[in-house]
Amino acid sequence: MGMSVAPFFFYVLAIAFLGVFCSRGLESVQAGEAGFDVRQHLSSSTRYEWGKSLMAGYEDPGNVPVGCTPIHINLVARHGTRGPTKKRIKELEKLAKRLHEVAAQAGNTAPAWMRDWRSPWEGKKVGGELLPIGEEEMYYLAQRYRNNYTEIFEDDYHPETYPIITTQVGRSSASAVAFGIGSFAGRGTLGPGKQRAFAVVSDSKGNDIHLRFHDTCMAYKQSKKYRMPAVEKLQAEVYELVAKAVKERLGLAVTAEDVSSLWLLCKNEASLLDIVDRACGLFTPEEIELLEWADDLQMHHLKGYGETLNYRMGVPLLEDVVQSMDRAMATLKDSNSETATEKARLRFAHAETVIPFICLLGLFLDDVDVKSIQSEEPFQAPPRPPKHRVWRGAMVAPFGANTALVLHKCSLDSGTGEEFLVQALHNEKSVSMPGCNGTHFCPIEVFKKHVVAPHLKRSFESLCTVAVEHQPPERQSWFHRLFVPFYLFRWPGKPAHAQSICQSELEL
Ligand SMILES: *[C@@H]1O[C@H](CO)[C@@H](O)[C@H](O)[C@H]1NC(C)=O
Ligand SMILES: *[C@@H]1O[C@H](CO)[C@@H](O)[C@H](O)[C@H]1NC(C)=O
After folding, report:
1. Which-ligand-closest: CA of 53?
2. Residues in CB range of 231: below 8 A, 6 or more apart
């Protein structure tokens, strides 16, 4: 049970911590802390430019070794900035009513905007679409890749040279198109921009195990459902804490639920409309950091390192990446080869795709422990602010987040031979992989052995098949009321579907 102990202690500590220290540090806070910009603290709702700015000074990549040329890029990108989804639009409409009540109750002390506030998205019947700002993120991202990797993007367009792959979700496929326009503008004959038409392909929604495994891996969906209440409890504790502080400071009778919706509003106003003095203005920087942390915790537990299945299920994507590298090397080595030379494999998907991919590569880890990466154990949850943490949603998975593996061909000093090095970029910045001993340029053999191979021990099927699926939602057992994390009751070494059965048996 070794693997389960650390996260469990975390839960106990976190709950105790929030309980005991709940009044600590929140009263004496004033806004205007030097350099604090809420737009860099919106977790996965952060716009790309702000998320990218956080990568500055993250690591010093050093220079590309002499004699190396990039020959292939594997890209995994999240869609660009999008509008709020339908569910969130509804939530914000409800919030309007609540804010009027809160403002009326507070009288003159209520902020003026609150009294007659209406959601900017009121009455919208569709949501979640890629916004113009999101199109621009993808377009200019493509142009930077193209300018920095001229060797990769210099060929004539062909769908086998530059496959563009997306999920069947509008904002992702629109992101793929915006990236394609940026990549091939000026290379065709269409219109004044000399556009080139390009192909965008996807797996069907129900079978997409390469980019939508969060939706096709049944064991994950089940495990997420079981783990969700415990995570929501952690978040609710933060909202409670912040509600109390806001009430004391501003005299506004907000509930934890209101704070949750106001945080949603703050994220959308700041990220999409650059409004930072309304909903966001109700919170101090310290409170915003707590709210951000609550989002990041959820990301850790349900999408990231918090549970191995979260990223193990990304194995088909990892295999696809390695196979495309193998093909690129094989065609280079054999000049008579019949296969087309693929130069870049460009994928457009979701936070639920990029985050697991990052975890498979071992990026963004505190106190890097290569052994635990290779044994795929869950890691410590990100520490509560003001403690520093590496795992920040704003940096890991803002809108437009992109992780690329660049394959370099390098001639060896000794003369004839050549070697292939893999470099990881996150949001365009070179990052080291712990499995590669913290280096930025990792020999392909080391990459395969220490980064990839440990994850290939299990197949998608063995991880994701759910043999028995029954969970009466009304019957909340003692097990759930205690908010014990699901994986405490896992049997290490058993495949996920067997564990799901154990869980069901415990239930009934
Ligand atoms: C391209 O180079 C610019 C300038 O050095 C840099 O800011 C940007 O992050 C790079 N982007 C990529 C995709 O390499
Ligand atoms: C990893 O790096 C350390 C320190 O630079 C070095 O001593 C060690 O030999 C390296 N290990 C491998 C496998 O390259």
Report:
1. 1
2. 297, 298, 301, 302
